[in-house]
Every structure is written in C-alpha cells, then in structure tokens.
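Quick log. Single chain, no ligands specified.
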Amino acid sequence: MMPSLGWVAEPAVLPWIALAAGLCVGSFLNVVIHRLPKMMEREWRAQCAELAGSAPAPAERYNLAVPRSACPSCGHAIRAIENIPLLSWLWLRGKCAACSAAISPRYPVVELLTGLVAAYVAARYGATLAALGATLFCCCLIALAAIDFDTQLLPDDITLPLLWTGLAVNLAGTFVPLASAVVGAMAGYLALWSIYWLFKLATGKEGMGYGDFKLLGAIGAWLGWQALPLVILLSSVVGAAVGIALIVFTQHGRDRPIPFGPYLAAAGVIALLWGPAITHRWLPIFS
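-> predicted structure:
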C-alpha cells in the first residue's frame, strides 16, 4: 500500500483524479508518438554521417520538450488554452485556431483512452503501487501501438525500459512472482524470435521486426509466462481479422506489411486487466 492519501484515495474520488491525470498524460503521449520517431531519424542520420566521415548537418534542437508544439500546416504556436486535453479539440472543433487546418482526431482519442484506462486502473487497484505500475504499463503500450501503426517502429527507448521496469515491479511479486516474470521475459522474446526464423527459413522473407520480440518480452516481464498464450492468441486473431479486412475492403496490397505491435499492445492491456477472467471463463470451452 502507498502512504495514506486521505480523501484523495477514497474509491469515489480517486478514479476521477486518475481520469484527469490520465488525460494530461495522454496529451504528453501524443508528443511522444509524434516526436520520438523523428528524434530517432535524426539520430540515425547523424550516425550515418559519422560513419561516412562527414560532419552531420547542423540542426535545431529537437526533443520531447523543444520546440513548442505548433500547427504543422501554418506553424502557429499552440497556446495553453488550445492545449487542454480533449476540451481544446472540442472547443476548436478539430481545427487549428489560426489556419483552420484539420487536427487529427487521434489526439483526443489517445487522451481519452489514456484517461479511461487510468480511471479504470485506479478503481480496480486503489491507491497502490500496483495501480501506478499498471498505469505506466498501459501508457507505454498505448504509445508503442500508435508509433508502430504510423512508422512500423517499436523504439528501444520504450520497449527495453518497459521490460526492465516489469522485472523491477515484480521483485515484490506485484503482479506475478519474480521467477514467472523472468521466464515470461525470456519466453516472450524467444517465442516470436523462433516464429520469425521459421518463417524466414520457409519463405525467405521477414514476417515481423525485432521490436515485436522485445515488446512481447516486456509484456512477459510484467504479466508472467502464464499470460503469454492468451496474449499471443488475442493478438494473432485480431491481427489476422484486421489484415484480412484491410485486404478485402481497402485493397491493401498483400505485399504491404501490417504492423503487429498494436495488436500485441492491445492484447497486453486486455491480459493485464481481464486476463484471469478470460482464461477461466472462456478458454476452457476450447479445451
């Protein structure tokens, strides 16, 4: 248990506080989703220039804090009143205040999803370290899912700390015993690594990226090896259904890759919040 927080920890109050905090965290996740791939690209270009023996081209400072958020169409700097999670998008009717360019609905969706997850976790776990851990886990998966959907990248800057944090959180058996978490991390990575090489040897093509291995390893570190069959089953079924729908209804080329990270992330969140109930209620039907 965390130290006493008084009325803040009351079951009728805590979820609402978590909802408000989650909306703010979701706004930050939007920054991470947009900027982290660009930061990685800049770093790669600098490394390539260094390997080529040339000085990298000078560039303005660019990270998660600098420069200020601005409209990509007109460069209008986002004011504080225009940056209130969810409410500003509704107030502006999804358009830039300066040029009326459309603002992607993904921004409020990420904010709302993060807020709802934080509220649900707070209601379920209360004012505990488990609630903080579960919220961190879900927030990282939301960011990874969106980044992979946009760029087909799962940044090591998120997946590797997520894996080690999962092991650290389970030192005290917060979600699963430490031994289960360690085996889960190894089994999660090796499961998709094995599938990758079997597929490559059979077809000569790469069926997934190394980021998927690391992500499933991180999920195993948080939820233990026992959750991996459910995570793999859920992600595979949903991924296959979505892939078939894209090919049939949107003329998505069969040779165009479909990111697997969003389905792994969604399955990880489901396994954390409802995994035991699903396992005990539904899986016996198929056994």
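The radius of gyration is 21 Å.
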